């Protein structure tokens, strides 16, 4: 599947990269991640792959401080956005979540709210006040960047819930983009979509590359290869928590993996 070329990257220094150092995680006494260190390059798409239950979603939720919303959750290690610890004392989780947005497995627009209000709701939730004109501009530019503008420009006041599943997912991407995040986390964003909608979301990801940093969890090996430049393979066993087995350039990890467990997984021999 041919995807459009990435837009030219902004000047170096304008984009934020993300890095974790020795991140471990628990739910109660159950340790689910073990010392995960990973660099997610600014402006690139990093795919997290691995069998069910190896901790990919937990890791993603740690990156924007959603993990701590679960009562029993604990963690150790560091998450650095532009070199600064997002868990530093005094740093507000809501500020972190504005800079590091998230798109979920199932599209979750506000169904009875209009398309334009859905996009603008991200601003409201983040406490960002804008005038009417700027709001309209942000709604349009966010929908353009999410690849949805042409399909909805004549029905901005109709409910978000009336869109197709794929369009709803792109609406959720637009909602995230409206607050100008540095990083967009995507947790299996196409798993509830048909192949055509999946392709459209993948095109959107390709168009966003170079404009912000993207981290995507996917079970779809073809998708990981189509959309990402870097890849991390997670694995947990019956009695050991999830950890990274191998990380690197996507083409290399799929074409010439170093670890035999990576080779088995990317070639569909388990998981
Ligand atoms: N809220 C929770 N409370 C307790 N345990 C949890 C919770 N969320 C996840 N876990 C456990 O943490 C481990 C990792 O789960 P996680 O969802 O991060 O894995 P995953 O690799 O994303 O799986 P999948 O690919 O199936 O989504 C699993 O053992 C899971 O049961």
UniProtKB/TrEMBL annotation:
SMART domains: AAA. It holds the Pfam family ABC_tran. SUPFAM superfamilies: P-loop containing nucleoside triphosphate hydrolases. PROSITE patterns: ABC_TRANSPORTER_1, ABC_TRANSPORTER_2. Keywords: ATP-binding, Nucleotide-binding, Translocase, Transport. One of its GO terms (molecular function) is ATP binding. Residues 18-266 form the ABC transporter domain. PANTHER family: ABC TRANSPORTER I FAMILY MEMBER 17 (PTHR43423:SF1). This is Phosphate ABC transporter ATP-binding protein.
């Amino acid at each position: 599947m041919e995807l459009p070329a990435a837009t030219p990257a902004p000047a170096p220094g304008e984009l934020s990269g993300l890095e974790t150092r020795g991140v471990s995680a628990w739910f109660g006494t159950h340790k689910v991640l073990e010392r995960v260190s990973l660099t997610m390059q600014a402006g690139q798409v990093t795919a997290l792959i691995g069998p069910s239950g190896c901790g990919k979603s937990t890791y993603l939720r740690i990156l924007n401080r959603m993990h701590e919303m679960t009562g029993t959750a604990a963690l150790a290690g560091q998450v650095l956005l532009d070199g600064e610890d997002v868990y530093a004392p005094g740093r507000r989780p809501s500020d972190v979540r504005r800079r590091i947005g998230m798109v979920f497995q199932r599209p979750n627009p506000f169904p009875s709210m209009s398309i334009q209000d859905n996009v603008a709701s991200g601003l409201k939730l983040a406490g960002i006040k804008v005038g009417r004109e700027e709001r309209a501009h942000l709604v349009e530019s966010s929908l353009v960047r999410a690849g949805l503008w042409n399909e909805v420009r004549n029905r901005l006041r109709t409910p978000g819930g009336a869109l197709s599943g794929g369009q709803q997912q792109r609406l959720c991407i637009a909602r995230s983009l409206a607050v100008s995040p540095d990083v967009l986390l995507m947790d299996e964003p196409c798993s509830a979509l048909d192949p055509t909608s999946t392709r459209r979301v993948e095109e959107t990801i390709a168009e966003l590359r170079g404009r912000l940093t993207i981290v995507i969890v996917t079970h779809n090996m073809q998708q990981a290869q189509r959309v990402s430049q870097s890849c991390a393979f997670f694995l947990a066993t019956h009695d050991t928590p999830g950890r990274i087995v191998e990380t690197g350039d996507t083409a290399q990890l799929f074409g010439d993996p170093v670890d035999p467990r990576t080779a088995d997984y990317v070639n569909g021999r388990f998981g």
